[in-house]
Amino acid sequence: MQPGNVPTHKKFTYPVREPLKQYLADYGHAVPLPIHYEDLLRHQTSIPLLDQEGNDTLWETVYFPEHEQTEIYEALKYIYALLKTQGETDVFEHLTIARIDHCTFGNSKPFRIRIINKLNDNYDHFYIKRADASRVYGIELENLLSPNSVLFFFNENTLVEEHIVGVPGDIFQTKYLNGSVFNQIRIAKEFVKFNERCFVRLLGDMRAYNYVVAITPDIEGNQYRMRAIDFDQQSYEGARRFYLPQYFKENNPVIFLGIQHMKAETVRQYQLEERSLMAMRMQNESVQVNHLFRVMATDDISTPLKAEQLKAELADFHQCEKFLGCSTMGELVVEHIRYNLEKENRKGG
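User: That's the sequence. What structure does it adopt?
Assistant: Structure tokens below.
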């Protein structure tokens, strides 16, 4: 990893303040929940969760007292129904909670709920996390500016998120990079676009294990889509390189594909294509985007020291002194998105 790409210390958790709560209510993300994050902390015992090879996954499977388990499981099934069927409870009789896992490693310390359809043994997951304003902004910027969407709900200090399907990036690199040259070029192309999306909206820490790759078979070869799954480091650190996946050594296998198969002008073409698509999405959702920007610009989502470092680095990188006038990290994010995408609108016009 390059110097400047290491988080300076454990990230703070920022509360969801009233303006952001109102935004979430206005756009259907704030809903009453029958159970909250703290309720799941009352588990009685836990055991390490191992993978198929017997390795520690850093998750623990948790167990609740018998007199509480039924109530907790019913509440979790209702939350799953909210995610999948807008709360239609007829699906309850076919669902069962197979396992609740807790990850004590990382910022959000999430609970992962594994739910099974008894009719066909098909399983799914969703997550319950402690609400963090940084993460909420990260998910909403993903929903508004990327080709992906993440369904989530907020209530009090709890965040519920759907599972994002895909092959974890580190596993993808070990199993899928030795295919045809055609597929390798498509993988490299997608990484360029993913790198650009992260940098424009300042989503940091996109090492291989913080994103997944969705693979879609096509007429010739496969199509690939890289999707962030960890939004905790949305615009928190002060180093510019922290927001560019290309600078993390964990991504080197994919980066080397790009070096092998693409020229600089091709990379630039893909960067411009991705910015144009982001600009189009921002224009199409301008009312909601501007509402989010107004809330974000005045919120407290990083330290003043980190904001000062980042605005100086961005001003130097872009040779644009406008960044130096930003007073908060949220305002800096808004300015960076507009600087990079509004010029694409001007080109298009």
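The longest helix spans residues 181-201.
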